[in-house]
Write a structure and sequence with these properties.
This protein has 27 helices and 19 strands. It is of the alpha/beta class.
């Protein structure tokens, strides 16, 4: 991930241009929703059915070509009332004939009953208890009309009294399905009421609506389709929230306030993604780089952020610091990716722009990015600072990767996999064989080595396949050349390896020597003795000044003299950290040049990121964000303590904040929403883990500061 990050949003906004790639839903087949709803003439019950259909439309919308709806009625428009009419409607609806590529949803909402035999029935207006077999419809037969269709993705929702009682029948009938269907299809049945409980008309509508709100806000599942397990978890959480909000009369038992919790009746398919369960919270993020390098390349949000910060207006084409400045360093990287082979290590202290340099290289070389008119001026940099198209073949950020997961990702990006096995040694052998045999040259980027799951093990194992492949094939002085082989010589693949890792700066900003050498840098250099080491923090002052000027130019209230003054003030206090400088400039842009005369603000800039964060917290609270300073710090610190790639919203972020604050947050979802809308969102970045959007501090240096945030003094917020 890049060292400089823009403000984070819950889901990536899609640009206006229709050329941007869209998610799988856009090209997916139209689905079918068959509704078997049986009104009973009671105004309250019939109104509840309408509310249920409105809630269903949130999940399976009729418009936009996603799902076609067929609702039950006789040819003359009257409601179904007899068993014969139900069976005729099922045939007329085409339910059993649904094709393999069409996701199918069957929704049954009516009165139901569990008979003495334990069989469950759909009760109709003409049903009599004395003749259930003749006048009622077995619920299992309705479900299997959909389950044994040709559709590969099927969801049946049974909203009937005691609908969970049909489970034993459904399980017993599974063996009558063709073996291929049991293996290849994704078949799910959801019951909305337990045994012995009646269905409440409006309850399902409320649960579905609240679950939809969760799916489109706090849950943030980063996949276009859900599993049955994910869907039922959303329904469970929605039911619990509704249950907690339901008032209980004095003296009434709490059980009477319990909301019916929908439950799956078939478990075989509940952990498989189903196209019958579209995710309403999924918004495909525009891709600006090919998948093989996207782990290190700049994201759409980053590019838009820097485009705005550099120009002040989204429609003014200027690529910002990602595409200007640091000319000498960029020339070194561009020159390296055009060499025959070798290794280059880009290193420096925290916040000095290592990942930004690598991210720029990866992004500007990507053909997909270069084809976008929106970023054309990014390619107008100084001579020798723009990499050729396709210069980077594969890239991975080592953050929280093990050696196995990183090699698996790189191997697949390069188009090679082990013949058999999925262990570390299998991938090492496959990559070694691929890198040393003849073929087109490749450039591989591995960033954030110091943030790998086990950096030392990562360096000795994940980088092992590249040691020989990047070594020049020079013979030692005085050695006798080997006999020339007959026929055309097999040329070894040219391999270039770009590595990024943090290391201690050689000197502090005041010129004092820093103690000790960085072990990881020494270890990598030892593994690759011929590697070129590029420090991006050797003399950052000029680049920091240029960075500040780029971010403030063309801003209202900022004339040339004020911009020059800001560059001097921030440059002196940023201590070579672009992260520090960016946060300071954010505050200058918001407050104007007068802030340069504020002694208190200057002192806080001198404190580093801690002082700047304190200022932003005060500004966010003063802006009426709905957050207190304590709550804001608690949520930010919780993200810094998260393991893996970040903290998921849902129940996890509030629970972590509770642990950090040692007190529960009141209305935590709203507090998190306000945090992500405030200026403090700039301190966070998003990632994905286990198909969830996750949040973490925008930089590891910031995460360390938050984890060690000082305990507030008595009387302070």
């Amino acid at each position: 991930m890049s060292e400089q990050r823009g403000p984070v949003v819950a889901v990536a906004a899609e640009p206006d241009a229709p050329r941007w790639p869209r998610g799988p839903l856009a090209a997916g087949p139209r689905g079918l929703l068959v509704g078997l709803v049986v009104p009973d003439g009671d105004p309250g019950f019939d109104e509840a059915l309408e509310q249920q259909l409105a809630a269903l439309e949130l999940w399976w919308p009729r418009g936009g070509g996603e799902f076609g709806w067929r609702l039950s009625a006789n040819p003359d428009g009257t409601p179904l009332s007899t068993r014969h009419e139900v069976e005729t409607y099922l045939e007329r609806s085409g339910l059993r004939a649904t094709g393999p590529t069409t996701p199918l949803v069957l929704f049954v909402s009516a009165h139901g009953l569990a008979a003495t035999s334990t069989r469950h029935y759909l009760r109709l207006p003409d049903t009599t208890d004395e003749r259930l077999l003749a006048t009622a419809v077995p619920t299992a037969a309705l479900a299997y009309a959909a389950l044994d269709s040709r559709a590969r993705d099927v969801l049946v929702i049974l909203n009937m009294c005691e609908s969970a009682a049909v489970q034993s029948e459904l399980v017993a009938l599974q063996d009558d399905l063709a073996p291929a269907r049991r293996q290849e299809a994704r078949l799910n049945v959801l019951a909305t009421t337990e045994r012995g409980r009646q269905v409440l008309g409006l309850e399902l509508a409320r649960v579905l609506s609240r679950a939809h709100l969760l799916a489109t806000t706090s849950e943030q599942i980063a996949h276009p389709h859900l599993t049955m397990s994910e869907f039922t978890q959303l329904l469970h959480r929605a039911a619990k929230l509704l249950e907690d909000e339901r008032p209980v009369r004095r003296g009434a038992r709490r059980a009477h306030a319990r909301v019916n919790i929908p439950q799956p009746l078939l478990t075989q398919w509940q952990h498989e993604r189903s196209r019958a369960l579209p995710n309403p919270g999924y918004v495909p993020a525009p891709r600006v780089a090919k998948a093989e390098v996207s782990d290190v390349a700049a994201t759409f949000d980053e590019l838009e952020y820097w485009l705005e910060k550099a120009s002040g207006r989204l429609d003014k084409a200027d690529g910002g610091w990602y595409f200007s400045g640091r000319t000498n360093l960029n020339r070194l990287l561009v020159d390296f990716v055009q060499r025959p082979r070798g290794t280059m290590i880009v290193t420096g202290g925290a916040g000095t722009g290592k990942s930004a340099l690598l991210g720029r290289m990866v992004t500007l070389s990507d053909p997909l990015f270069r084809s976008e008119e929106r970023y054309k001026t990014a390619l107008d940099g100084p001579p020798g600072t723009i990499p050729p198209p396709g210069a980077v073949t594969a890239a991975v950020s080592a953050r929280n990767h093990t050696a196995l997961t990183a090699l698996r990702q790189l191997g697949r990006a390069l188009g090679c996999e082990p013949a058999e096995g999925d262990e570390l040694g299998d991938w090492q052998s496959a990559l070694e064989e691929f890198l040393t045999r003849p073929g087109p040259p490749v450039t591989v980027v591995v960033d954030s080595l110091d943030e790998a799951y086990d950096p030392t093990h990562f360096i000795t194992t994940a980088l092992a396949p590249f040691v020989t492949a990047t070594r020049p094939a020079d013979r030692a002085p005085g050695a006798v050349p080997a006999p020339a082989p007959r026929g055309p010589a097999a040329r070894r693949r040219r391999v270039r390896l770009l590595l990024g890792l943090r290391s201690a700066r050689p000197t502090a900003h005041d010129g004092a020597a820093r103690p000790g050498a960085d072990d990881l840098l020494a270890e990598v250099a030892d593994r690759f003795p011929g590697a070129i080491i590029v420090r991006c923090d050797a003399d950052p002052g000029q680049d920091i000044h240029a960075y500040v000027r780029v971010l403030l130019r063309d801003q209202e209230r900022w004339g040339p003299a004020a911009v020059a003054r800001a560059a001097d003030v921030v440059g002196v206090r940023a201590a070579g950290s672009f992260l520090h400088a960016r946060l300071a400039v954010e505050q200058l842009r918001a407050a104007g040049p007068a802030l340069l005369a504020d002694r208190g603000w200057l002192d806080r800039v001198g404190e580093g990121i801690t002082g700047l964060l304190r200022t932003d917290i005060e500004l966010a609270v003063a802006a009426g964000s709905g957050l207190t300073a304590t709550e804001a710090v608690g949520l930010l610190r919780a993200s810094a303590f998260a393991l893996g790639r970040g903290v998921a919203w849902g129940d996890v972020w509030p629970a972590l904040a509770h642990a950090v604050l040692q007190a529960p947050l009141r209305d935590p979802d709203e507090k998190i929403r306000q945090l992500l809308k405030s200026r403090l969102a700039g301190y966070l970045t998003t990632d994905h883990e286990d198909d969830r959007v996750v949040y973490r501090p925008a930089h590891e240096q910031l995460a360390q500061i938050l984890r060690h945030w000082p305990t507030p003094r008595k009387g302070t917020p």
